[in-house]
From TrEMBL, chains A, B:
GO cellular component: cytosol
Subcellular location: Cytoplasm
Alphabetical list of PANTHER family matching this protein: FERRIC UPTAKE REGULATION PROTEIN, ZINC UPTAKE REGULATION PROTEIN
UniProt GO BP: negative regulation of DNA-templated transcription; regulation of secondary metabolite biosynthetic process
CDD domains, A to Z: Fur_like (cd07153)
Entry protein name: Ferric uptake regulation protein
Species the sequence originates in: Rhodovulum kholense
Gene name for this UniProt entry: fur
Transcription regulation is among the record's keywords: yes
Keyword Transferase: no
Length: 139, 139
DNA sequence: ATGCAGTTGCAAGTCATTTGCAACAAAAAT
DNA sequence: ATTTTTGTTGCAAATGACTTGCAACTGCAT
């Protein structure tokens, strides 16, 4: 795990991204993250470890990390962008409209169908977004 | 067609929505619309017919019509919301990342799969969003 | 014609995010 | 180890896309 982090910071360094104290902490916070926090929440979690950390630095770091492919940004309906590590395999999201909770899922079958549709219409997919806004089934 | 419009305004009236000059024009503009314009574009198209029309009225009208189920709002990536009439059957969108052009498509097979996935995880779909960001295949 | 609840234009406000800038601090170079 | 170079930071102000308060209207049921 220390290894992971090391490899990562080295890669970032190589890309000309400096690992400052604020970025190191944000990287740690993101590594510990199990949910899909937004910028303000990440700032709340990181600030105690870097007193004075500004929200704009959080935004800037998030953009930098997204550019490096380290994290992914998701813009769900009517809410600020939320982030997650990019390490894991591709998946889509289900958002509980009542709680805001995010559940990940994946369907190769759907991906195939999407690709086929795009191809048939003369396009190639650059990326896609599929979100299911759901509610717990009361049973 | 005059019929259509008449039925529509009557329904709106019944819902307590007044058909003012600005709304009538916006309704007309939307009826003529073949693409997926945003609020500013709709304002641009309607203003000549209602000199002085304000952008806030456009936004307010759009919200009212959306509430009445007359139009649908789509929030594509990194762009202001775009609108379309709601009359047509459900479909999803493919956005050409180079031109911004929107192509509609529909796949019952995918819808089925989505529903199944949600059910399996204990949820029911309230609504979904599926967007394919694409590029013309150069062939 | 009349009264009033729904609408309008305008200015100001909100929210999430971005940016200009001078002070600062990682890496590099020496 | 010190200097130099160049990416970063915090802060305040700016942006973009809407939304809202408010006083002056205006559909439209009566």
């Amino acid at each position: 795990m220390q290894d992971q982090t090391d490899r990562l910071t080295r890669a970032l360094r190589a890309a000309g991204v400096r690992i400052t104290r604020q970025r190191a902490v944000l990287l740690d916070v993101l590594a510990e993250t199990e949910d899909h926090p937004d910028a303000v929440e990440l700032h709340r979690r990181a600030e105690p470890r870097v007193p004075g950390l500004s929200l704009s630095t959080v935004y800037r770091t998030l953009s930098a990390l997204e550019e490096q492919g380290v994290i992914q940004r998701h813009q769900f309906e009517g809410a600020p962008a939320r982030f997650e590590r990019a390490e894991s395999a591709h998946h889509d999201h289900m958002i509980d409209v009542e709680t805001g909770e995010v559940v990940e899922f994946r369907s190769d079958r759907i991906e195939e169908l999407q690709a086929r549709i795009a191809t048939e219409l003369g396009y190639e997919i650059v990326h896609h977004r599929m979100e299911l806004y759901v509610r717990k089934r009361r049973g």
